[in-house]
């Protein structure tokens, strides 16, 4: 091993040993104090001092006074283990510390380092001795040797001298220029070479560098001398760290062979990355290993860059050819499909193969739709050509973005219904009633994006959200089209905006299409001064966002969701859906709200159905067991017995009659909860009459004579609208048969508003929650949609015991109530005064909405395990009244549960967080009970275990 050390290490070791020799010589000559001798002398002096004291006290007859002195000596001096006075006969007359059992010397023995005895005289007579027992001066064994002062001194001086000499010699040797041994004429010749030249010694230290290499590194050649090669800016091909052990010169030094045509990379002082072709030749010195290595470096950066550019150009050409071939094949298929229908049915008509006029009309309709589709394909190609040629003209005129989005959704909504998908229009906050844009092109963009979203979505739905972004000037209108479809890989998101491109060929084969819609949409948006962007998660869905400048908003009204719906005259017309229903069908309507039962009875009564009514679950159970019904419409939140309990009771009794849940609760995950309770289907309030009729018809065997479908428009929860003093009629007011239902609601609403205001003044939040929940469902059901948003907000504020927010929303509801307009000839009916009871909830198996994706099963399982660990922490924080900890845990649950698809936890976690922040102990307990019940009903992804629902506390 010593042979492997360099000259610098050898010299440093020799000098260090020389210093040690000098130190040892000084010690032998007595020039260095002996610490152990000093310790022994001190112990002897102590013993003699005590002996003198003892002799003096003996002479005075005060021997007993020595005991405190001995104890004080032992206590104050950590080296003294014990002390004693022993008589001439060997009897110990006093001692301090454990002395008698540990003393080993006889009277005739000599004192040692650890046991010291001093004779005591009384006059001239020897009457006893003082005995002191000490700790060893140095530890015994190896530890004693290591802690010997001489060993520590020699070791310290040796290591210090070795380090000082080693680094000093390194600094001195570094300034020695080994290139001075190279003749000037040889150096001049080397400096004329265009290639870099480098000579390294066996330790990879630079001993020679020519001018070409020095100029590349930006350092003088003299500064490179003595530098280790690892300090040079070598990198890998991507600019990362370079593995010096794999360097060609390292191999040449190791195996003593020439290595040629290797490639290395180095970063220049300006930050650019250069590529070198290097050759390494070992310098043989007669030993077993080379004494160094000669390296030549040729900069081939430009050659490599040209090669990369050529490869990219080739790839681009190949990609373009493939895209063209794919496009031609795709367009051939897309064009031939409608063309086949056009030519085929035209030939049938030309030859007179149609059996009757109805057949001919059907064939003509097919020809017309195929021709329209073919024209759309051609228009897409022409639009793309115009945009790319810069000849697409757009205008900037007043247009209503909400109205355009609503029209597109109504026109395209039939596709969503065909695929059983939800298609919603949402307004986030307030947006301008009009903007400066091109309505035709905006409609085209929306049609492309929404149509695309529906095409690639098989489950779930599509949500179109409009919002105003005021962070920049001018403001921008943002339209997000979010779907729950197949998603797009992250590295292919930008590619979908290229013409003729889809995410992959399998998508094209599965869903069809030309791949032009997104390309045209982005180009149109950019032509209008905006853009279209996309984000996506494979397997979860995509969001395509349109950003458009609004133009000047001076004098433009900013409207919320309700006002925008009114502006486009969205109305639910009960006569637009013509259903033919069997006259002998019998239906039981169960709801604690008389107006809700009357509305359903009025609508279904138009179709000749036989209807019975029940005002709570107990009555419904009795009636369903006494009579046979084809369908039961069941409200889930009722007094006496709620819909969950009633449904479970009927199912446990063996009843197989379809039961459709009808409730104002539209929380995510609620559908799974009611289905788990035993319901067949799920409808929300306000009652969508078309959806109600479609569900009833599907169950009792009806069929549709004619339809006018409308899409679902999701209400957005925002701030109260700016007061509008105009009257608010019901959207059902044009239907004479609905007037009694509307009139009864108006009368009851006015009475309930007094109850709401009284509960708010008394801070009776539980009653306020019940009344707000009733108003949220009942108001929308009879066509007063203005109640839905503020009633929902009031319910949320009351659940959080937020008196200030509750007062704000009660005032908003009072303003709306004062503007409610009842139909002119509404009969006055005195409503019964009933106090709604707190709804009970029943919990079924709680599953994640993401469990259909097997890749997420492990994530879901980990969350379930974590939730079972967190629940005791939540309960402990509540018992300790640690509301800060409780709010933090609730906040974690609110986010984490929703992330992994357990949406059932969102509401109770939100409410628990609010209750904890407000320090409301009783509400915290209630929501913790709810969370605990949900946790116990959590079902792992993929589990088929039947878990019997249990009532939540």
TrEMBL record:
InterPro entries: CheY-like_superfamily (IPR011006), HATPase_C_sf (IPR036890), HATPase_dom (IPR003594), His_kinase_dom (IPR005467), HisK_dim/P_dom (IPR003661), HisK_dim/P_sf (IPR036097), HPT_dom_sf (IPR036641), PAS (IPR000014)
Residue list for modification Phosphohistidine: 773, 891
Broad class of the protein's primary localization: membrane
GO molecular function: ATP binding; histidine phosphotransfer kinase activity; phosphorelay sensor kinase activity
Compartments in which it is found: Cell inner membrane
Keyword list, A-Z: ATP-binding, Cell inner membrane, Cell membrane, Kinase, Membrane, Nucleotide-binding, Phosphoprotein, Transferase, Transmembrane, Transmembrane helix, Two-component regulatory system
Record-linked PANTHER family: OSMOSENSING HISTIDINE PROTEIN KINASE SLN1 (PTHR43047:SF72), TWO-COMPONENT HISTIDINE PROTEIN KINASE (PTHR43047)
Annotated protein name in UniProt: histidine kinase
Organism (species): Denitromonas halophila
Lineage: Bacteria, Pseudomonadati, Pseudomonadota, Betaproteobacteria, Rhodocyclales
